[in-house]
């Protein structure tokens, strides 16, 4: 706590309670991310009703990516800590209170453009609802959200017309309402009365929405509100009344301004789509498929494990009891892996960035973007359309599962597995949404035939690399593991789907492996295996299996293989 005789004024909420501020970066990462996650967990429990506590499993914990704190020296500035807490609180509230926009009964009747527009509108309403609910818990929580929005999502005012009698557009009305209710903006003297008449009507209609606690009923109300708003014309510019990319408003100190810019770069990837903080989407936890034939795990509660046995058998794979769980994040282990693989990460990341850029084209003559050197003469003449921007293809080009054998024979080689996983996670992470990836390890609960299969999720797109509490030291159930990777890829839409499989031994059941490979052939998923000192092309197929002669070669083999996988 801050002492009463402190002469330095507190400028951030966290300045009042942070007592473990440290110059050690590892301690700071653990303190800030761990404290924010704890606050998010408390919010989740406070939002749950008595009925939910009795009937539903505990929600999955909120895990914050440590890259949110990249570029900040220890001790972390108070403004950044406030924003991290705001992100965690918002994500916890979204998980607990919201449902996907596709739950609306009218969703199937919409085209793609209308779906995107409705989803943005629904998420905006949910932002309003969350503020209302959290204000009842604590005004401090709302202040954290307000700091996060002001820092990461400054609001661009919608265009205002001075012409009387002009029909307001839907974006002008929604933008003015959001600026008023979420950002505290007031009506200016130059504002069009027609716009604010519609804003008042929207506000009146939205009161019913904000009082409704049932998330499924709210999404239906959102559909009715959107249908009412859709009677207004669209804007000529789609950027009016949206969260903007540039920082707006004067800030007191240059140091604060730079912290704001750095945090925005970390959270949104420089405003690239698919950034870590995507305010246009709501992620909700997927309930686990529990199975009665799974043995009780010591020290692990049932909600941490997702059972996929039934799904594998439905796909035609002879699977033992198979489960997936998340590893536990440890900032110290993550920092160590980053230090040990910095050179390999930069090399693979640079290679993938070049491949990604080759799939894009430049657009010229734009009013904003990167300055076009060929248009400097136009700039000198006073013209403003002298910028260019890289136009990326939409959609996902590659979905990749890195599947690693961590059976008993791999115990002494786990540091190498951690480094290889770090190379994949850190190199492919910034390429979202064009590239989606997941890192899974696998083993079994025993060496006998039919022993339960255990997979651990170390990382995925948007989630940090977690290296603690990994299931290991069992057999080699490669067939079930490959089939589980297929199951993860089946949920993805991508131009190409790949399983990159690493093993140091022969599988426990070759027949199940062949079943999984045939399943991949039908699904259009390629499986490429790296085998340690054991040629296995007879099992995995000609050209589908490469041999490495030591586990320590894995990072170098990955650096050679990943560019080939991308094509």
SSE-based structural type: alpha/beta
Largest sheet: 8 strands, mixed
- What is the strand tally? 11
* Helicity range: 40-55%
Beta-strand percentage? Answer: 5-15%
Low-confidence stretches: 1-9, 159-164, 237-252, 269-303
Helix count equals 18
Rg computed from alpha carbons, rounded to a whole number of angstroms:
26 Å
Give the overall shape, derived from the CA principal axes: globular
Order of helices and strands: HHHHHHHHHEHEHHEEHEEHEEHEHEHEH
The neighbouring-strand order within the major sheet is: 1-2-8-7-6-9-10-11
Mean pLDDT score: 76
**N-end to C-end Cα span:** 55 Å
Described by its quaternary structure, the protein is single chain
Question: What do these coordinates show?
Answer:
By secondary structure, the chain is α/β, with parallel strands linked by helices. It has 18 helices and eleven strands. α7 runs antiparallel to α8 and α15 packs parallel to α16. It is globular.
Topology:
Elements: H1 25-47, H2 50-55, H3 78-97, H4 112-137, H5 139-152, H6 170-181, H7 193-211, H8 215-229, H9 254-268, E1 305-307, H10 309-314, E2 322-326, H11 331-340, H12 342-357, E3 361-366, E4 370-371, H13 376-380, E5 387-391, E6 398-405, H14 414-428, E7 435-444, E8 453-460, H15 478-490, E9 496-503, H16 510-523, E10 525-532, H17 537-540, E11 545-548, H18 554-566
Parallel strand pairs: 2-8, 6-7, 6-9, 9-10, 10-11
Antiparallel strand pairs: 1-2, 3-5, 4-5, 7-8
Helix pairs in contact: 1-3, 3-5, 4-5, 4-7, 4-8, 6-7, 7-8, 11-14, 12-14, 12-18, 15-16
């Amino acid at each position: 706590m801050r002492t009463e005789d402190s002469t330095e004024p507190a400028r951030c909420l966290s300045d009042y309670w942070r007592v473990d501020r440290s110059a050690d970066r590892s301690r700071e990462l653990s303190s800030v991310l761990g404290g924010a996650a704890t606050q998010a967990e408390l919010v989740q429990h406070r939002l749950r009703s008595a009925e939910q506590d009795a009937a539903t499993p505990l929600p999955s914990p909120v895990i914050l990516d440590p890259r949110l704190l990249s570029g900040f020296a220890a001790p972390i500035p108070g403004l950044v800590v406030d924003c991290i807490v705001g992100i965690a609180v918002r994500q916890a509230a979204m998980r607990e209170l919201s449902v996907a926009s596709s739950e609306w009964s009218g969703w199937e009747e919409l085209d793609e453009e209308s779906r995107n527009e409705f989803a943005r509108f629904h998420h905006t309403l949910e932002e309003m609802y969350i503020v209302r609910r959290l204000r009842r818990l604590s005004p401090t929580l709302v202040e954290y959200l307000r700091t996060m929005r002001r820092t990461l999502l400054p609001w661009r005012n919608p265009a205002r017309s001075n012409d009387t009698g002009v029909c307001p557009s839907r974006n002008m009305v929604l933008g003015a309402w959001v600026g008023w209710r979420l950002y505290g903006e007031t009506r200016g003297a130059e504002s069009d009365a027609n716009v604010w008449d519609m804003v008042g009507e929207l506000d009146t209609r939205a009161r019913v929405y904000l009082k409704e606690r049932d998330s499924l009923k709210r999404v239906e109300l959102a559909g009715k509100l959107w249908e009412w708003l859709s009677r207004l014309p669209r804007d000529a510019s789609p950027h009016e009344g949206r969260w903007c990319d540039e920082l707006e408003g004067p800030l007191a100190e240059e140091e604060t301004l730079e912290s704001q810019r750095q945090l925005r770069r970390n959270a949104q990837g420089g405003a690239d789509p698919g950034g870590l903080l995507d305010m246009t989407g709501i992620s909700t936890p997927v309930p686990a498929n529990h199975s009665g034939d799974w043995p009780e795990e010591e020290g692990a509660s049932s909600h941490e494990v997702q059972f996929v046995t039934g799904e594998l058998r439905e796909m035609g794979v002879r699977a033992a009891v198979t489960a997936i769980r998340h590893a536990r994040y440890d900032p110290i282990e993550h920092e160590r892996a980053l230090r040990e693989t910095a050179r390999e990460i930069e090399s693979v990341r640079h290679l993938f960035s070049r491949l990604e850029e080759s799939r894009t084209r430049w657009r010229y003559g734009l009013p904003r973007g990167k300055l076009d050197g060929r248009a400097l003469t136009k700039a000198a003449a006073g013209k403003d359309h002298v910028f260019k921007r890289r136009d990326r293809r939409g959609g996902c080009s590659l979905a990749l599962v890195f599947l690693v054998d961590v059976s008993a024979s791999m115990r002494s080689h786990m540091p190498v597995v951690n480094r290889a996983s770090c190379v994949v996670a850190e190199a492919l992470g910034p390429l979202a949404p064009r590239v989606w990836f997941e890192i899974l390890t696998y083993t079994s609960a025993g060496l006998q035939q039919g022993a339960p299969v255990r997979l651990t999720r170390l990382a995925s797109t948007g989630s940090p690399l977690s290296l603690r509490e990994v299931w290991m030291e069992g057999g080699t159930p490669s067939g079930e593991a490959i089939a589980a990777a297929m199951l993860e890829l089946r949920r993805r839409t991508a131009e190409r789907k790949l399983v990159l499989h690493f093993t140091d031994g022969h599988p426990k059941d070759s027949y199940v492996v062949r079943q999984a490979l045939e399943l991949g052939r039908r699904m259009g998923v390629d499986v490429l295996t790296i085998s340690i000192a054991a040629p296995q092309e007879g099992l995995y197929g000609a050209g589908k299996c490469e041999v490495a002669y030591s586990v320590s070669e894995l990072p170098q083999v990955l650096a050679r293989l990943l560019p080939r996988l991308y094509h």
